[in-house]
Amino acid sequence: MNKITGVIAAAVVLLIAGVYGTYAYHQKEIATLKTQLVARNGQVSQYESQIGNLQTTNTNLLQRMEDLSIIGKTGAESINKSLDNISKQYDYIENLSTKIQSKDSLNLALVMNIKRSLVDINDDDVQVEVKGGVVYVSISDKLLYKSGSSKLTDKAKEVLGKIATVVNDHEELNILVEGHTDDVPMANNCMADNWDLSVKRATSVVRVLQQEYFVSPERLTAAGRSEFLPKEMNTTPEGRAANRRTEIVITPRLDQFFQLLEAPLIAD
Fold first, then answer.
1. I need a surface site. Which of 94, 125, 163, 199 has the fewest CB within 10 A?
2. CA distance 220 to 216
3. Does pTM top 0.85 for this prediction?
4. Mean pLDDT score, 186-202
5. Beta-ladder partners of 248
6. Which residues pair with 134 in a beta bridge?
7. 138: β partners
């Protein structure tokens, strides 16, 4: 009986030891797993933090790309406008150059035609030249008038007729007639002063061009400059003689002139 009891007791002890050993083993395993779980949780937190950083970076990159897209589009539009403006300016310059060349050619033709028509007139009495892009025909007063008078001579009308023949072939041009005197004071029953004389001489020329040679009056302007725009010094007889003159200035019409200078519309 005692032997059986001892065996049972030993078996119980062994069973208890086995159960305890198994429990201890599992506890150790559970502790290891807990440690591993904590480590995994730490890694998960790190990964989550990295994912958050990557998402933030990605958002920033997307915003920058949008900004660059807008800047690129705006820049492209600006470049296109600049190229368009450059093209317009180039066309304007090219057109202006062509018109200037055409006007210069016309002026040259006018000068040659007027000089050819006045070939029999003394060069000291009539001078034809281009100044400031317009044609000047300067006629001395001794050819046009008697001293102190605004009445035209027959020779003057002959010269004016030849000039009228040329300008009537170019209706797109205007004619300005300017009277000039020297600085010797002028006053008589017909003239108040040099201003009066210069204006009346200019109107005499304009009247003949219109009435006898059919130059359109809309193209004509009469002006008096008195002694205030001399060609030479008034200190010598020769200088005063050069200053006593009437100038016929052949100019483009103002509307055509301003059209010539009109710049193209430039985009902002």
1. 94
2. 7
3. no
4. 90
5. 137, 177
6. 131
7. 127, 247
What is the distance between the terminal CA atoms of the chain, rounded to a whole angstrom?
119
What is the widest separation between alpha-carbon atoms in the chain? Answer: 182
Residue linked to tokens 């480590």: 39
Q: Are strands 245-252 and 173-180 parallel, antiparallel or unpaired?
A: antiparallel
In which residue are the tokens 């304007």 written?
92
pLDDT in tens, 9-19: 555 555 555 54
User: Does residue 244 have a pLDDT over 80?
Assistant: yes
Q: What is the DSSP string of 92-140?
A: HHHHHHHHHHHHHHHHHHHHHHHHHHTTTS-TTTEEEEEETTEEEEEEE
- CB contact at 8 A, 202 and 223: yes
Amino acid making up residue 252: P
pLDDT tens profile 78-129: 766 766 777 776 676 776 667 667 778 888 888 999 999 998 888 889 999 9
Query: What order of strands is seen across the sheet that includes strand 173-180?
Result: 126-131, 134-140, 245-252, 173-180, 220-224
By DSSP bridging, strand 173-180 and strand 220-224 are parallel
How many angstroms separate the CA atoms of 48 and 40, rounded? 12
Question: Strand pairing partners for 127?
Answer: 138
Domains of the chain and CATH, by start = 104-259 (3.30.1330.60)
Task: Determine whether 235 is exposed, middle or buried from the number of CB atoms within 10 Å of its CB (0-12, 13-18, 19+).
Answer: exposed
Looking at the chain, the number of H-run helices and the number of E-run strands are 6, 5
Query: What is the residue whose two structure tokens read 């892009």?
Result: 133
